[in-house]
Specification:
With 170 residues, the protein is α/β, with parallel strands linked by helices. The protein has a single domain, classed as Dihydrofolate Reductase, subunit A (3-Layer(aba) Sandwich). Helix content is 19%, strand content 32%. An eight-stranded mixed beta sheet has the order 5-4-3-6-1-7-10-9. The model has no long low-confidence stretch (mean pLDDT 94).
């Protein structure tokens, strides 16, 4: 069965973006295993707000992957590159996990992260802690949902970034 992997950077205080969605505090001076990670997945999942944020970066960066966007925007129409899903998100993700293929990257954001955490559909957390405290912003999860994970790997970088890999317990 395919795994859903949340691969995401957070501030030390647990924010994935500023309140306006900006991620200017992220730095990309190193790869931090991103290219290797991309080789393990063939599908990306994200919420509508994250989708709009990614569009602001320029060309669609996931053109070689199956892209699925979960959105409340009923006007969003699927294209050859992107499939928009408006309902039964957990059911859709369960079906994706049962398909043949590589693993699935949950890109974010907070609402879809929380929904998939609460429905126990996230198998791995790849958390990249940036050495910054933002004080406010968009949290990794919108509310608490008790879920247990086991640490598999920790890697520290000279930049101050810490990569932590967790697997769902049980």
């Amino acid at each position: 069965m395919r795994k859903v992997k949340l691969f995401i950077a957070t501030s030390l205080d647990g924010y994935i973006a500023r309140e306006n969605g900006d991620v200017d505090w992220l730095y990309t001076d190193q790869d931090y295993g991103y290219k290797d990670f991309l080789n393990t997945i063939d599908t990306v999942l994200m919420g509508g707000k994250t989708y709009r944020q990614v569009l602001g970066f320029g060309d669609w960066p996931y053109s070689t992957k199956r892209s699925i966007v979960f959105t409340h925007d009923l006007k969003a129409e699927s294209t050859d590159e992107i499939t928009f899903i408006h309902h039964d998100i957990p059911g859709c993700v369960k079906r994706l996990k049962e398909e043949k293929g590589k693993d699935i990257w949950l890109v974010g954001g907070a609402e879809i992260n929380t929904l998939l955490l609460e429905t126990q559909l996230i198998d791995e957390l790849w958390l990249f802690k940036m050495p910054v405290i933002l004080g406010s912003g968009i949290p990794l999860f919108t509310r608490s949902a008790e879920s247990w994970f086991q640490i598999q790997d920790i890697e520290e970088f000279d930049s101050g970034l810490v990569k932590m890999l967790y697997h769902r317990k049980g």
